[in-house]
Amino acid sequence: MSSAAEVVSASETLAVEATGIRKSFGAGETRVLALHEFDTTIRRGRITGLVGPDGAGKTTFLRMIAGLLLPEAGELSVLGVDATRDPERLRGRVGYMPQRFGLYEDLTVAENLDLYADLHGLPIDEREARYAELMEFTGLDAFRSRLAGRLSGGMKQKLGLACTLVHPPELLLLDEPSVGVDPVSRRELWQIVVRLSGGGMTVVWSTAYQDEAERCSEVIVLYEGQRLAEGRPADLIDPVRGRAFGLPVSPADRRRAARRAKSIPGILDAVVQGRTVRILLAEGVSPPDPSELLPGADDLPEHFTPALPRFEDAFVALLREREESDGSARESIDPEHGEPSKEGDEARAEAGMAPAGGTTRSDVIEIRHLTRVFGDFRAVDDVTFSVARGEIFGLLGPNGAGKSTTFRMLCGLLPPTSGEARVLGIDLRRSAPRARARIGYMSQKFSLYGVLNVRQNLRFFGGAYGLMGAHREARIDWALDAFELRELAGRTSEDLPLGYKQRLALAAALLHEPEILFLDEPTSGVAPLTRREFWDRINALAESGVTVLVTTHFLDEAEYCDRVGIIYRGHLIALGSPDELKDRYRRPGEPDPTLDDTFVALIEAHQREHPE
């Protein structure tokens, strides 16, 4: 039995204590278990990361802590209050910033602050001093009169936080504040939250970004409603120390080598990272001979080199262990045939292409001096670049920089104001519908019809792309098999797990066998293993001759791109391969920068050289 002193000590050190929490949503066959026998504790005065993909249960748990949801079973104590019986006692003590920031977009920055001040009962005579502090804190003072709907994603993020802090809470809950937000804004938000924590505030930061987890004092890893692990990030990384290795591989062979590595027993994960293929080994397994990745290659190093472990390695290892305990298998899927992928040169030969690394270049996207003006605002200003057939090209940039506008013009969805844009030789200013018929498009939220089942969605998109009769049915059968959706063909898309929604959206975009595929934030919120599977498919498509243009805020994914362009304030400020861009930032104190570091450095350098 615990002594009274132990009980008092626990209440003073723990902000949250959860035992046996259970919560489900829906009814009948569509009932989803959001949290199952969930136990955890969160200590006061720290930044605790709630880490996991969409659908893991993060939002459900945060809403319970905030007193907005009640569990079906279990006990939950928040700041010493029984949150299952008396959640009203938490009002004013817990601040909650939801995923979409909780803003009213038709109100100005100042009007949003006033609204939250009214909700929290902040006295009129205290408001101006509090607003001034928050505006200085977030850097929004110059934007008080701007409508919230006209702020960039990063600025909305900061305003959402400022509104949550109008009445300073003891416990601050941030529900995926950085999803869809560029690295510059993510870093700025993190600096703000660190300052809050340093002042004694307890912060729970929900995230799907593995690199953010490493910055937290402690982390709780969730997956499919259950706790996989918890503790200090360094302690969770410890089990995978000595199990990560890298091998330098030529640019033409990196994606193929990474895919082959995944088929080698004992390798849990393989990704492209800079100039290397990076592998994660199962416990007790030694690195393979490099020749197993690229048989016949004569320019490979003799051995793999040890690499520093990352939090994502620990997460992947946990998920692989879960896979093995569930008895599920993994394989590399070729998106055209639903079979193990063919090697790059073989696939390219079938597509009538030169082998990877050859000198032949055929540009299928060409833009020259592309400009788009909205009123007196130049969203895209004099942008020029081209993309070759079979190339994966990443279009990167902060929120509001102009990359989405560029993307929409290249898809034929938005006419340019001036300049030239050609896709497959077709002038988009004159014949956009012709170009769209040869393009596949997958949006960030997948654009699926939630009330339609999987087969109905495929039938609808097939018709939209002009497929009819037996040909359309044959392509639907291909999609169901190639993307392992046949068993789910009768299930409505809104009830699918996020990873399967992603598969369905990609299958729909490929039904008409497009020559160019546009992907807009395609992996936002999905689990690491699902991201790996997705990129296996994209890499195989590129090797078969499909051109891919992708936007992403996961800059580690941009390593898969042959080249990337960075857009900022409407201008293309950098263009080259990931390695070429990192070479511009490489220096004695930073010999091996990440693409994330490079992105931020390039933006900051441009700001210094071209101040507004």
Key descriptive features of the protein:
globular, 34% helix, 612 residues, single chain, six-stranded mixed beta sheet, alpha/beta, Rossmann fold, 3 domains
Q: What does it look like?
A:
- With 612 residues, the chain is an alpha/beta fold.
- It has three domains: 13-237, P-loop containing nucleotide triphosphate hydrolases (Rossmann fold); 241-332; 389-408 and 432-609, P-loop containing nucleotide triphosphate hydrolases (Rossmann fold, 3-Layer(aba) Sandwich).
- 34% of the residues lie in helices and 24% in strands.
- It has a six-stranded mixed β-sheet with strand order 6-7-8-3-9-10, with helices on both faces.
- Strand 7 (171-175), helix 6 and strand 8 form a beta-alpha-beta unit.
- Helix 3 (109-120) runs parallel beside helix 5, helix 5 (153-164) runs parallel beside helix 6 and helix 14 crosses helix 15.
- Mean pLDDT is 86; it is low at 1-9 and 329-359.
How confident is the prediction overall: mean pLDDT?
86
Structural class: alpha/beta
**Please, how many helices?**
19
Q: For the record, what is the CATH homologous superfamily label of the largest domain? A: P-loop containing nucleotide triphosphate hydrolases
Tell me the count of domains.
3
CATH names the topology of the largest domain as Rossmann fold
* Spans of at least 5 consecutive residues with low confidence: 1-9, 329-359
- The rounded distance between the terminal residues' Cα atoms is 65 Å
Estimate the helix proportion, in percent: 25-40%
How many extended strands? 24
Give the CATH class of the largest domain: Alpha Beta
How is the main sheet built? 6 strands, mixed
